[in-house]
From TrEMBL:
This is Calcium voltage-gated channel auxiliary subunit alpha2delta 2. PANTHER family: VOLTAGE-DEPENDENT CALCIUM CHANNEL SUBUNIT ALPHA-2/DELTA-RELATED (PTHR10166), VOLTAGE-DEPENDENT CALCIUM CHANNEL SUBUNIT ALPHA-2_DELTA-2 (PTHR10166:SF7). SMART domains: VWA. InterPro entries: Ca_channel_alpha-2/delta, VDCC_a2/dsu, VWA_N, VWF_A, vWFA_dom_sf. It comes from Cairina moschata (Muscovy duck). Residues 1-31 form the signal peptide. Its main location: membrane.
Amino acid sequence: MAMAAPTGSAALCGHLALLLLLLLAAPAALGYSFPQQHTMQYWARRLEQEIDGVMRIFGGVQQLRGIYNENRNLFEVKENVPRKLVEKVAGDIESLLAKKVRALKRLANAAEKFQKAHHWQDNIREEDIEYYDSKADTEYVSTDDPDGEEIEREKSNSLKLEFTDDANFKTKVNYSYAAVQIPTDIYKGSTVILNELNWTQALEDVFIENRKEDPSLLWQVFGSATGVTRYYPATPWRAPNKIDLYDVRRRPWYIQGASSPKDMVIIVDVSGSVSGLTLKLMKTSVYEMLDTLSDDDYVNVASFNEKAKPVSCFKHLVQANIRNKKVFKEDVQGMVAKGTTDYKAGFEYAFDQLQNSNITRANCNKMIMMFTDGGEDRVQDVFEKYNWPNKTVRVFTFSVGQHNYDVTPLQWMACANKGYYFEIPSIGAIRINTQEYLDVLGRPMVLAGNRAKQVQWTNVYQDALGLGLVVTGTLPVFNLTEDSSDRKNQLILGVMGIDVALNDIKKLTPRYNLGANGYVFAIDLNGYVLLHPNLQPQIINFREPVTLDFLDAELEDENKEEIRRSMIDGNDGQRFIKTLIKSLDEQYIDEVFRTYTWAPIKSTNYSLGLVLPPYSTYYIQANLSDQILQVKYFEYLLPNSFESEGHVFIAPSPLQVLKGCNEVSVKSSLLQTEHPRLSQPFFTGELMQPLISFVALLWTRSNSPTSFWCWGPQAWTQHCREYCKDLDLSDNNTEFLENFIALMEKVTPDSKQCDNFLLHNLILDTGITQQLVERVWKDQDLNTYSLLAVFAATDGGITRVFPNKAADDWEEEPEPFNASFYRRSLDNKGYIFKPPYRDAGYRGLDLENNTIGILVSTAVELSIGGKTLKPAVVGVKLDLEAWAEKFKVLASNRTDRDQLGTRRCDPSSSCEMDCEANNKDLICVLIDDGGFLVLSNQEDHWYQVGKFFSEVDANLMSALYNNSFYARKESYDFQSVCAPEAQSNTGAAPRGVFVPTVADLLNLAWWTSAAAWSLFQQFLYGLTYSSWFQTEDVTADSMEARETSCIMKQTQYYFSTVNATYNAIIDCGNCSRLFHAQRLANTNLLFVVADKPLCSQCESVKLLQAEVRAPPRDPNQCELVDRPRYRKGPHICFDYNATEDTSDCGRGASFAPSLGVLLSLQLLLLYSSASRHPLPPAACL
């Protein structure tokens, strides 16, 4: 426990007594006293003066200001006017999406027309239909044959197409045809599917006409209610190697377009008769039902026997977001069958949930989904009390399992309450029967006609065919046919969708004129971000949309909550706030000022925001009309000038130029260790071994997670300069510069194929930084001050490092906007120290053969005509070993004329210890504002420089935190990917019941043929499930470890408001320690002097800084749902129509399986199951 130094006579006595104990316990320090406060303040001033002196001499801040002023005729100072910028960008995005809406409406109208004109054919045959089957070339089953033979699943009549690479789609396409995808568990030869293929074929001409009108159109898709997907242009389906479970009807964009929002209560019968197979079928059914819900829906799940109770901690309806659904899925596993059935208890609980008006909910479709094995009670009295005569709640009943119960009561319940009755005799019936309720919910939409033809835009999600992150505009397609009585058909045909890549929207936003720390973002009605520099999903589950809340993308505070609410409400506004932000490398927290400006994007459910720091109100726009000067400055980019002028890095970085400025996917087991961030593979696009090797080289060279992270997805997705379209890219900076110069010899910076703003600013900064070399760096001896390098980085994309040899060890991001030191220097006054990051497991380098550098940087602030801006950052790189020795001298009693051996105190006399002479008894350290060790007088600390200080001295770091030198900020990263946690098979407790996804089930057994498919497709899953129930050990042994989405907990430390000198005691009896701490002025450093620990009896709990996987249920979802964040659902609701025909309200199973077929297939299943392996989840379109 650390205590502030006491005052007063009584306290003084106590303090002296404690000092006496310390002296008695430290014989090595006999004759020495702990340094007094004024002494340490003197040392602090010496350190401040030394740092300031070096930076004044070598940083060249004043000289660089003068250079800018002297070259004032070469640039203009432009102003960013936030409201005008937001208005323009919002208008541009609105125009972009409006073009897609026109194409979408044209497709939907054409589809309704084609279907209405289509004549149903009962005798249609597969060979009568001509279409491109996108899975024709991928449908096969690998065998264990050593010759690697493959068994064709079925012969296909698919068209044979040729494909060409297309940069827009990032894959091979054919613009003359559309492609068809049919779910694996649907028989493509059925009459329904063949008729669907027949009439949708006419859509191809509309697809082609749409593209002629708007060549920028990406995927155009029709998702049919039958499960057929027709998309344009044609491209082979990117299915997993084994089982493809993609079904368009289960995709969020389809569900959103096919029905209005839902309030759903799922009740599950867990009476004693439901044990064994039936209960497991119910659990999986609940899983699949939850997957049909989107973020616009609300849900709760309860089990019932004699009484009803929620299966989870949620006591009311909660938003059906990914995190809440995950809680339900985990807790459903805990359901146990016992007792007797009381339908009344279950339905009364469900109606009470739906009638609770004190909570946030969808307030549209209301429904109860009951899963049971059967019963005799119709609970008519409950329906009369809660639901009749208006029948505002639909009831869907599901008879689960193989049994002989009378299902008439279940059918009656559904039919009497505008719902539907389904049977789930086996696992094969789950997927289809847990999604067909959407057809019932679509009836009011169809009957509403054009009023329900509302284009909706989705959340962000990962495209199945390689576009990366997209949003989709959706429009329902209705069946316009009428029966013989002229009654309208009330079935939805499907949903039409058109994709828009996020990259295309980003292109409409300003980037480099906003500076390194300015950015544009956009959110939807749920508060989820559409655009944001921190939107970096580590996608592995394509079934889940990307739902990052604005308040999770940034560090939450009251101001941002109010901004978010205003944006969701569709208002415009502006607010200047003080807030906390994370550094780019996520190691630091800075308190900054920002101006937030926002406005709605009209005709959409999105709102656009702009964030600007004060110093980005103005920016430089170069105007280099003098071609002779252009040529002169270009010469300073030539590698032959590096020896005299310093090495020049220009953005983009080598990682970026490997594939240009498109997003790339990196996934390698090489990157799965050492640091949490490196265990999160991703980007988008195809995997590239050269890129993996390059990243591996970076990691091997630097052994620095920070270095990798700066080269990683954050740098990629946020800033990537594209100077000219024809610039040859290279992963070597020198070669890239040569290519750049070669191109400039062919074209001028004002060429239409080049970005004139970027090029002119690059040229200007090349010349300005070269003048800094001539005026400051060349005339100085870096070795005299123990400097490894000096450098300057600019908004124009230049990083100049001097001398040239220092570039060999330069590990910072060449793109200044993606370099943590650059962005932090802009946001903080004074000199910002940045040691190389070391995680807790780092064991150090041999300092004799390796030089460690510490970066010190500061921003260059210009004031031109009353306009303030920061166009550059300059700094030095300190030699750690030399500066550690210098640090000891500066924090000592020695003057410049003193010799070390002439000033030691005699043991009989009393004098103060210092950091040089008494380094065996006194610890002296410099710690930065994130709590990382920068310098120490302890030689054994040198290899730990860059570590979080609690890893070095947990006792002292805890005292600093407890005495308010540091504050702590905890946050969560909801976009992470983790390896699955190991499940122990030991211990006395029984193993928990594993309820797999359907993908898991299929992977255990999937042996079918085209001949048998039409006979047993409805109960094939049942066969699979039988195997699964009996072979838990086989399941555990045969399944590969799969990465899963997870939540990472982040903790950052930062300076609190304490600025004064501070003395304190770490009180631990005979092991107590004195320490003194003081902030160094004009730096981000804390100077700490402390006694060395005398014993280990007072160990403190080590403070954690490294990112770790959040424990289960952390953050606590059970508490969060009681204070839900503000959101809005869609503006309109279609849940009722007086003309709705509810007579079609249920059916049973199609047919009973043959026992002989069952047994034969099961034997085949068991024989082959040991070799089965799981697959990646199916992708989503």
